[in-house]
């Protein structure tokens, strides 16, 4: 993405013009921040006014509770996404895929697993880029286990998941999710590396030469802000339908499912709840934007935290579309090992949280 933002040619801006851009940029960012904050602060009041005064619904009733939930959560989540995706879009200009490969190349497995998992949070990744990223890592000499740590962390702990969790369920569960997600990525990648499964990478992968782009791009502050805007357009533009659908489903659960109704199905006492949640989650086609609003509603109706987290992690980290795409570069035994190791890690996290929380 960043490579499209470089200057097309001509002389660089003069110092005076550069200062002018900086002033205008600062004023625009300050004005945008003020507007964002003002809108965020009135969401709850707006939701109550629209539900009770305009629509005449009782927020204690089923329909009223569902409508107020939807009207409040939808703009709140979208505003949080706008802000965080914009900031992360700027941060990503410092972490191009080429630079990420260069940072991971030659790393020892233990330190490499940790670094790869951390880089997975802030670098561009989606299921459609899994194959070129994998090929690039192999070509750069990145160990297989380190590559998998990156491939696990990148979709599971992305900015959309973190923002939605923070906005819908609060900082405590968000931090638990980030910490356990990183742990699963680090440990799973290390285990895959120890198993020495390189022979199950398709042979043609080792013959591909994808080239190397320039690692040090001379981007101005304006370029980086533009990159943040592009990230908002691309990411929020793609996920907003999932936000609406997910929050609508969550609103239905919030308004119509009785309190405690899910405790027997996804509760602490059901030993089979965690593996069942993982098995249900793997084949589902969704992402953080669609699944996390449902997670919030499930928690509110009595489902155990560990079971719900296991469900969410399996949907995001072991999505069927990503596995189908990875089949182009991995043979079935390696895909099976990847799914099995990550699934076991997710189940251990689910049982742990169900036992202690």
What features would you describe in this structure?
Helix content is 72%, strand content 0%. By secondary structure, the protein is mainly alpha-helical. The chain has two domains: 19-94 and 221-241, no CATH class; 97-207 and 254-356, no CATH class. The longest helix has 36 residues, at 221-256. The model is unreliable at 1-17 and 212-216 (pLDDT under 50).
Question: What is the structure about, briefly put?
Answer:
The chain has 357 residues and is mainly alpha-helical.
Defining key terms:
357 residues, mainly alpha, 2 domains, 0% strand
Q: Indicate how many domains the architecture comprises.
A: 2
Distance between the termini: 42 Å
Percent of residues in beta strands: under 5%
Radius of gyration based on Cα positions:
22 Å
Which range best describes the helical content: under 10%, 10-25%, 25-40%, 40-55%, 55-70% or over 70%? over 70%
Mean pLDDT: 78
DSSP helix count? 16
